[in-house]
C-alpha cells in the first residue's frame, strides 16, 4: 500500500548519505553476522508515525513545549534504508520480519512503497531504522523511484536464491541505484532470501559472494520465513545501522523559528567507534 512519504522528517534529522565507503566484501565465507551484543531493539512499528519534530513544527504556541519536543527528537536520528529487488524475492517478508518479528501469513505485491520503522539502541543511542519496502514490479514503482533514492542512507539489494533470474537482474537494480546519484559511499548489502527452500537453490553461495565482493557489498544468505533465521535478518539492518552510526553523528546546533515553523540547523561530525 502506498503511504505518505516520511522523507521530510527523515531528511531533517538523519545523516545525509554517508561517508567512509561501503566497507563490505571482505571475502571469505558468506557473512551470517549475528546482531551485536551492544544492540538492543527497543520498539517496533509496522506503520510510520509522525514524530515529535513534525508535530512541533506545525505549532506556534509556547516555546517550552516546542523545545522539549525538539530535545526528544534531537536524540533520535533516522536512518533511511531502502530494500530493492525483483518482485516476489521476499522484500516485504524480510522487512516484516525485521520490524514485526514474524513472517506474514499472506503478502500482496507492494504498490509504490510501504514504510516500516523500528527503534533500536546502539551504544546508548536510540536510532530509528526507517525501512522503505519498495515495489519490485515496474508498473507499481515507476512514479516512486525518485523518492526511493532521495537522501537514502543505505541500500539492501535482495534476490531469491531459488530464482537465478532475480540474481542476474541485480546488475540492473545496481545500475538504477547508481543512475539516481546514490553515492558509492552509501553502504549497500546483498541479501539472498528463501534459503529455507534448500532443495530448490539455484544461486550458489560462491557465485553470490563473488558478485558481492565485486560490488563492495556484504552478503547475507537467509530466510524471512525460517524463524531460526530471524536474528540473521535483524543483522542485515543492524549492521547497516552500526555502520551509519559510525560514519556520522548529527549535532543540532541551532533551533530557529521561521514563519511559525521550527527549523533545525544541523552539523555532522565523523565518528569512528562503531561496535560492529
Ligand atoms: N519459502 C519462502 N518463501 C518466502 C520467503 N520470503 C518470502 N517468501 C514468499 O515469497 C512470496 C513473495 O514475497 P514478498 O515479500 O511479497 O515479495 P516482494 O519482493 O515484496 O514482492 P513485490 O512487493 O512484488 O516486489 C510470498 O509468497 C512469500 O510468502 C522465504 O524466506 N522463504
Ligand atoms: Mg513487496
From TrEMBL:
SMART domains: RAB, RAN, RAS, RHO. Keywords: GTP-binding, Hydrolase, Lipoprotein, Membrane, Methylation, Nucleotide-binding, Prenylation. Pfam families: Ras. It catalyses: GTP + H2O = GDP + phosphate + H(+). Residues 17-28 have a biased composition (Gly residues). It is found in: Endomembrane system. Residues 1-67 are annotated as: Disordered. InterPro entries: P-loop_NTPase (IPR027417), Rab33A/B (IPR041822), Small_GTP-bd (IPR005225), Small_GTPase (IPR001806). Its main location: membrane. One of its GO terms (cellular component) is Golgi apparatus. This is small monomeric GTPase. It comes from Austrofundulus limnaeus (Annual killifish).
Amino acid at each position: 500500500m502506498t503511504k505518505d512519504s516520511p522523507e521530510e522528517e527523515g531528511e531533517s534529522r538523519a545523516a545525509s548519505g554517508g561517508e567512509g565507503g561501503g566497507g563490505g566484501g571482505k571475502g571469505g565465507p558468506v557473512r551470517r553476522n549475528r546482531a551485536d551484543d551492544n544492540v538492543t531493539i527497543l520498539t517496533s512499528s509496522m506503520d510510520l508515525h509522525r514524530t515529535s519534530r513534525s508535530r512541533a513544527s506545525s505549532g506556534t504556541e509556547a516555546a517550552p513545549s516546542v523545545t522539549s519536543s525538539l530535545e526528544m527528537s534531537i536524540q533520535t536520528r533516522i536512518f533511511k534504508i531502502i530494500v530493492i529487488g525483483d518482485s516476489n524475492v521476499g522484500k516485504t517478508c524480510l522487512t516484516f520480519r525485521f520490524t514485526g518479528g514474524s513472517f506474514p501469513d499472506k503478502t500482496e505485491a507492494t504498490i509504490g512503497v510501504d514504510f516500516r520503522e523500528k527503534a533500536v539502541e546502539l551504544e546508548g543511542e536510540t536510532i530509528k531504522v526507517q525501512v522503505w519496502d519498495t515495489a519490485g514490479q515496474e508498473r507499481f514503482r515507476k512514479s516512486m523511484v525518485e523518492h526511493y533514492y532521495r537522501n537514502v542512507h543505505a541500500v539492501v539489494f535482495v534476490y531469491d536464491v531459488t530464482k537465478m533470474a532475480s540474481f542476474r537482474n541485480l546488475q540492473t537494480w545496481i545500475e538504477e541505484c547508481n543512475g539516481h546519484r546514490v553515492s558509492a559511499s552509501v553502504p549497500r548489502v546483498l541479501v539472498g532470501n528463501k534459503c529455507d527452500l534448500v532443495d530448490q537453490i539455484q544461486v550458489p553461495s560462491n557465485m553470490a559472494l563473488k558478485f558481492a565482493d565485486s560490488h563492495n557489498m556484504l552478503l547475507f544468505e537467509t530466510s524471512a520465513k525460517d524463524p531460526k533465521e530471524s536474528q540473521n535478518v535483524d543483522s542485515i539492518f543492524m549492521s547497516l545501522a552500526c555502520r551509519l552510526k559510525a560514519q556520522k553523528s548529527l549535532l543540532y546546533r541551532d533551533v530557529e523559528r521561521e514563519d511559525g515553523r521550527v527549523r533545525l540547523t544541523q552539523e555532522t561530525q565523523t565518528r569512528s567507534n562503531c561496535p560492529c
